[in-house]
Write a structure and sequence with these properties.
Length: 327
């Protein structure tokens, strides 16, 4: 059985904005609500959903860049949520993040070599000669010339900057990388190059990925399993092919129906959701999707569904799933 690298159990996270003296007062936004998932060694778990559904917040909570309000995260059996920063430090080398916007995540005042070398020096990788050799190897691994190490981030294209971010993420030979929409700011042709690079590195370095995206076509290309989020909660998890071809949750069905079909002769039935997503500051009772769901029933308005098995290797949080596979 494939071992579990990362386990999240019943994570919740809220953010407080404003103040009692401000015109709108204090506002509590629930970014995550009772989120649980497992990530298996060597897989790519895709995390998808609309903007503002909590994908990035979940990614940061899994690495304890944000501290969840409740629940716990276990990485190789170590409970991160109870650890101090000092206790976490040895584990930080084994879990890294690739951020969405490399222009924001790379310090413009520092040379590329210094940016990539920083985690190596922080974690006492070795002598300066060993670090220099590692930098050359990392640049070659991500498809950049080693002589670029003396340049500044602004001298590179967006795709090249993302390659630098990836080089920094793999510098310490991590087990787990969370990629937070790493290609959303790039041109389509460059997106494919970065996705292919990540796939190659996964095979070469035996990496486990959580790949956050809103583009289902990219998730279909790279992910082994996919978790669908809506308003801070996971509504469906399953193998990518099964979810894409046979979605069980009405929200997943609507997401997939919106993906453009490359073959103009094929027609796909569209599921149009009415209205806007509810505010996470005031989520609806019962099923969070019931205000937009095309198959809503009275039960949905009062009782929140839990993730339940819906056939082989599939769980769904819906009282009336669209389809149940035979086990």
């Amino acid at each position: 059985m494939t071992p579990v690298v990362l386990k999240a159990e019943h994570l919740t996270k809220t953010f407080v904005t404003g103040s009692r003296l401000a015109p709108g007062g204090r506002q509590v936004t629930q970014a995550l609500s009772d989120v649980s998932l497992d990530v298996f060694a060597g897989e790519t778990l895709g995390l998808v959903g609309e903007s503002g559904c909590g994908k990035s917040t979940l990614g940061r909570c899994l690495l304890k860049l944000y501290t969840p309000d409740s629940g716990r995260v276990l990485f190789h059996g170590h409970e991160l949520t109870r650890m101090t920063e000092r206790q976490l430090r040895p584990l930080r080398a084994k879990m890294q993040m690739v951020f969405q916007d490399p222009s924001a995540s790379l310090n413009p005042r520092r040379r590329v070599g210094d940016l990539i070398a920083e985690p190596l020096r922080v974690h006492n990788f070795g002598s300066e000669a060993a670090i220099e050799a590692r930098l050359v190897a990392l640049m070659n691994m991500v498809g950049l010339a080693p002589e670029y190490l003396n340049r500044f981030p602004h001298e590179f294209s967006g795709g090249q900057r993302q390659r630098i971010g990836i080089a920094r993420a793999i510098a310490l030979s991590p087990n787990l990388i969370i990629a937070d929409e790493p290609v959303s700011a790039l041109d389509v042709s460059v997106q494919a190059q970065i996705v292919n690079l990540l796939a190659d590195l996964q095979e070469t370095l035996d990496l486990t990925y959580i790949f956050i995206a809103h583009d289902l076509s990219i998730i279909r290309q790279i992910a082994d399993r996919v978790a669908v989020m809506y308003l801070g909660a996971i509504v469906e998890i399953g193998e990518t092919d099964a979810v894409m071809h046979n979605p069980a949750h009405p929200y997943t069905t609507a997401l997939i129906s919106a993906v453009p079909e490359p073959d103009p002769t094929l027609r796909r039935a569209r599921t149009i959701l009415e209205g806007d997503p509810p505010s996470p500051a005031n989520p609806p009772a019962g099923c969070r999707f019931h205000t937009r769901c095309p198959v809503v029933q009275a039960r949905c308005r009062v009782e929140r569904p839990e993730l339940q098995p819906a056939g082989a290797a599939r769980t769904v949080a819906c009282h009336y799933p669209v389809h149940r596979e035979s086990s």
